[in-house]
Amino acid sequence: MNQHSALVDNYRRRFTYLRLSVTDVCNFRCNYCLPDGYLPDDKKSNASSCASSTGFDSLDSSNGFLSLTEIAALVKAFALSGTKKIRLTGGEATLRKDLPDIIRLCKSTPGIEQVALTSNGYRITHQLPELVDAGLDQLNLSADSLNPSTFALITGHDKLREVMAGLDLALGLGLTKVKLNVVLLRENNFDEFADFVEFVRHKPISLRFIELMQTTDNVDFFRRQHVSGQALQTYLEQNDWLQVLAEPNAGPAIEYTHPEYDGKIGLIMPYSKDFCSSCNRLRVSAEGNLHLCLFAEEGISLRPYLLNESASQLAERIQVLLLGKKATHELHEGLTGATKHLAMLGG
Ligand code: SAM
Ligand code: SF4
User: Across-strand partners of 90?
Assistant: First the structure.
């Protein structure tokens, strides 16, 4: 099968990075994302009871999510179109019992160079060795506070210690990149900025501060808690942190290093000017809907074609759909598209 030309949109952006959600179910209740916990729509009520009754590792395609065969077809088509990196996300991807198989199939697809996972890390130390064995290259964990009680207040779970142990284990297992996501919250963690910076002094991870994004479900929360990353950027630049050039397939974070720190600091500022001009990622939901933007008006279902079209036909279909991608999101106008919360798509 011939390699297709790379996915390119009308604004000459090239898309080499796929974020694939494998479930929208989550077991956490982050105050900015799922403050009331995961609430299923009708078709997935089974998925919710699975996640809450057994607690972990209970989901698979019988809950309505893409099956291994469907994921294999999707990944093959993206790889054929030049996708090099796949990030598995959710909801909480580690709730899928077949996650090691999903990683293995992504990693063994010709063209895919890096497989990454984003997880809340609630039992990552138990799962990580098997995931790395299956081919996982990179891990992002999330911790919005270094204080256990604030962490529990934000997420609904007293799991900070597990997440921290997960970071160390990931470094010990030799993953090529280990990151920690921190969503900036005016009332909950903005005053911890200096502690977070200090945290990376002896930890060779990349810590990303992410500006809170508005979604359909968090409008009031967003108004209260959104804070710009601009002040942090100024702090870093005035304190000898140096901006580094983005690597190929890297995300939109502006990343800084400092000679006295082992770790890096990244800023993800979706409300800043030109944020979308370097967009290089496409998203597919756990049910197979292609989202051209995190805040697109709708997802476009690829599912009917996954098992009925060749990888080549599917790749052509995706390229045609990509021409509908807009130049920027419309968050500044308060337009959040179809995105109720980021657990729907994985951020
Ligand atoms: N459950 C996993 C986790 O929390 O790491 C993966 C899915 S979560 C949607 C991916 C990332 O998006 C997390 O780091 C989370 O903190 C972040 N996130 C969720 N909602 C957000 C929002 N409204 N604005 C900014 N970041 C958000
Ligand atoms: Fe779950 Fe992640 Fe959303 Fe928190 S941010 S509720 S862990 S999907």
Answer: 23
